[in-house]
Hints:
The protein has helices spanning 52-57, 75-78, and strands at 2-4, 15-22, 25-32, 35-40, 48-49, 67-71, 90-93. The protein has 108 residues and is mainly beta. A hairpin with a 2-residue loop joins strand 3 and strand 4.
Amino acid sequence: MKILHSELVHHDIQKLVICSLEQALYQAVVVIDDEEHVVWKDNKQCLRSRNLTSLRECFGHLGINEVVLRQESAYDEMIGAPSKQASNRMEVPLGAPAYVDPTSRRDH
Length: 108
């Protein structure tokens, strides 16, 4: 399902999934009520970026607790091997926030 980025403030987002589509191209997906929604910039464009950090920053104001990077490899298909029955999906937790607040730093 599709959801506009501007509408996200009205939803309780369980998880932000940043999908790695190809080399340095990322797309945002959010999980709301256990259902995944592709995030759209507007009615014509998905929210994508070539910069992982800048894509994460688009969601900083929403207070999302779980952020993951998802990778699904098409390697087997690229080398002519048959597709596997099992998924090769990998999700790596990214943690939040993307940056440490410099005002919270303590000098020891």
